Amino acid sequence: YAAYTLEKDIVVFSEPAEKFKRVGLYVIISSSLPADVLSLTHRCVAGGADCIQLRAKDADDDSRFAMAVEFVQICKAADVLSIINDRADIAVAAGADGVHLGQNDLPIEQARKLQLAPLIFGKSTHSLEQLRAACKERPTYVSLGPVFATKIKPTAEVVGLDYVRERTEELADTGVGNVAIGGITLDNVGQVLSAGAAAIAVCSAVTEASDPTAACRALKEKIAAFKKE
């Protein structure tokens, strides 16, 4: 049991996990088109994103893996954390820093068995019940949301700012990080940070912007300014 606990602690406090604690801006690229994915990755890196997730749900395995390899290379060259959505096997094979798992994906305990080196493990949560269950899996971080209405998941129930405030307080002494997600924009990011979010995840606010690099930069500046206060 002691060895098992130590193994879990090594995962939670690994180098990628420690680096994740410094993440402020987390961008999700939700596309299965290689040209779009790679172009957006370059632009987000240039804009100062700390962490980028590749969410290519509609791609077949060959295409998703090929995209992941190039995506990871771009991120590593810029010292930006790379996360693969859903697929721990592709994250490991492509050399990504981590994997983000949804409620219906492989349990973290099983995903850990695939890692060749310590990975960042993220878990989506949308309720108090899901959050507490996720914490038992000892992820690096949990996502909290959707904070506001979002086009990515239009049917999802909005959790709101009070929920973020309460859950970040609950997570404070657990060693599990938090990322607020869902409908976050330059206009409301200050409210989300004030509610206690450690990191901010955005998708359309950056990827659908006329200038994704500028959109990243503006969000990063707001986050940095808030953390200096």
Automatic annotation (TrEMBL):
Keywords per UniProt: Magnesium, Metal-binding, Thiamine biosynthesis, Transferase
InterPro entries: Aldolase_TIM (IPR013785), ThiamineP_synth_sf (IPR036206), ThiamineP_synth_TenI (IPR022998), TMP_synthase (IPR034291)
Listed CDD domains: TMP_TenI
GO MF terms held by the record: metal ion binding; thiamine-phosphate diphosphorylase activity
UniProt entry tagged with the keyword GTP-binding: no
Reaction catalysed by this enzyme: 2-(2-carboxy-4-methylthiazol-5-yl)ethyl phosphate + 4-amino-2-methyl-5-(diphosphooxymethyl)pyrimidine + 2 H(+) = thiamine phosphate + CO2 + diphosphate; 2-[(2R,5Z)-2-carboxy-4-methylthiazol-5(2H)-ylidene]ethyl phosphate + 4-amino-2-methyl-5-(diphosphooxymethyl)pyrimidine + 2 H(+) = thiamine phosphate + CO2 + diphosphate; 4-methyl-5-(2-phosphooxyethyl)-thiazole + 4-amino-2-methyl-5-(diphosphooxymethyl)pyrimidine + H(+) = thiamine phosphate + diphosphate
Start and end residues of each Thiamine phosphate synthase/TenI domain: 25-206
GO BP field: thiamine biosynthetic process; thiamine diphosphate biosynthetic process
A Pfam family matched in the record: TMP-TENI
Functional pathway: Cofactor biosynthesis; thiamine diphosphate biosynthesis; thiamine phosphate from 4-amino-2-methyl-5-diphosphomethylpyrimidine and 4-methyl-5-(2-phosphoethyl)-thiazole: step 1/1
Keyword Magnesium listed: yes
Gene3D superfamilies in alphabetical order: Aldolase class I
GO CC aspect terms: cytoplasm
Enzyme Commission number(s) from the entry: 2.5.1.3
Reported cofactor(s): Mg(2+)
The protein's name in its UniProt record: thiamine phosphate synthase
Organism: marine sediment metagenome
